[in-house]
Write a structure and sequence with these properties.
Low-confidence stretches: none
Strand order of the largest sheet: 1-9-8-2-5-3-4
Number of strands: 9
Order of helices and strands: HHHHHEHEHEHEHEEEHEEH
Number of domains: 2
Number of helices: 11
Largest sheet: 7 strands, mixed
Length: 285
């Protein structure tokens, strides 16, 4: 499996895009992979759209997901210059000024655009280690390949179970942390509930706690697709110290609102095939 991933990552992107069309056709038309779930979620989120408009969003989201998969494979072996040519940061000084001030910064993004390229291009562009939190793969060979690919520009990939320990261990040294912040917490974990795309939605509260513990700035990473295989990124302030300890989970609420805005502006770039709404909101929360 690792050999196959290595070969695919070294395949020119135009050739991989041919495979993207085959992946899309197989998932959307043949296997109908999670079609019912995606159609239901989009119907709820865009109840104000016509049936034809919602059907177009469903189809476009599968096309984008297939493109993102092959782009991700290509990105695992791409050079720093190649990634910087395809992911343009509009205002990189937003990160640099915190680095210059020796202050940690937390970068928050949803499953939107191409988050794998975002992490890699950020490490290539800023020249500073950007640590990211991830869920380890169950197959050791794939896990090793992914770790080597994701950390080749100096950042660390930290398993979710180890993140709190690693953060506390590094607290005395400024770091940049990258979090994909729209995952669903387990039912037994503390969470922040809010309306998101028309539904009660649970968010992790970790970003709030990390920012307050590290006295770190929090930036929303707004990524948008400008052409096939090309993206633009704008960094936006969600919160900066000093923090009010009595304000609860305001950072995650701001993140949810900004992420929702992005999805409504370009629905197909959101990863609708993820099982985002796994359980209902309990009556007592």
């Amino acid at each position: 499996m690792r050999l196959l991933l290595t070969l695919l990552s070294r395949t020119p992107l135009p050739i991989l895009y041919v495979w993207s069309w085959l992946i899309y056709a197989g998932a959307f038309y043949v296997a109908r992979w999670r079609r019912r779930q995606v159609e239901r979620d989009i119907d709820i989120a865009f109840a104000d759209r016509t049936p034809d408009e919602r059907a177009a969003i469903v189809k476009a989201s599968y096309r984008h997901a297939a493109d993102m998969l092959v782009e991700m494979l290509w990105g695992f072996a791409a050079s720093a210059d190649a990634l910087k040519a395809r992911v343009a940061f509009e205002n990189p000084e937003m990160v640099q000024r915190h680095v210059d001030a020796a202050r940690s910064v937390v970068l928050l993004a949803p499953h939107y655009g191409n988050w794998e390229w975002l992490f890699l291009a950020g490490g290539a562009r800023f020249g500073i280690p950007i640590d990211t939190v991830y869920q380890p793969h169950r197959l050791p060979s794939i896990e090793k390949f992914l770790l080597e690919a994701r950390t080749r520009f100096g950042g660390a990939a930290i398993p979710r179970a180890d993140f709190i320990f690693e953060m506390m261990r590094r607290a005395d040294t400024p770091h940049a942390y990258s979090l994909i912040a729209d995952q669903t917490p387990r039912p037994d974990e503390r969470k922040h509930w809010t309306k998101f795309l028309g539904r009660d939605t649970a968010f992790y509260v970790g970003a709030d706690h990390i920012a307050r513990f590290l006295d770190a700035a929090v930036l929303y990473v707004a990524m948008r697709r400008v052409a096939r295989g090309r993206y633009s990124v704008r960094l936006e302030v969600l919160a900066e110290p000093p923090y009010d300890s009595n304000r609860g989970e305001e950072i995650m609420e701001r993140f949810a609102r900004r992420a929702e805005q992005a999805v409504r502006e370009s629905p197909a770039e959101f990863l609708w095939i993820q099982k985002r709404w796994k359980y209902p909101r309990p009556a007592d929360e």
